[in-house]
Structure prediction request, 119 residues.
Amino acid sequence: MAGNDTTVVEISEGDFLSSMQLAEALGDMHSLAGMFGGYRRLSRSSNPAVQTELARLRAVLEAGQKIEEQYGVGSLLKLSHPVTIKFAALRAIDPGALANAERYLQACLKGRDQNLLGV
Prediction:
């Protein structure tokens, strides 16, 4: 095989939806937003369950983006999630985003913002 050869792998709706759900679980609104733009075929799915979950995830994204407008990018990152912990240790997450997440978490714990519980 030449170095320029590219293999295209078809990703199933279920696998892509699972990736979106992982981004939600991580609190990664940036990745979730990118996924909405990156797999438009999902929006044309004939599966009602896919459409329902997609609508739910869009609502999560919209609510999350409003929080990030106030607290900064990355503010919804789940600091205790194993993937977040690993990526933070590898310095694969912007330190500013981690600081925003910590600031938002502290605001929620002090009762200044209850959105963390609802998103």
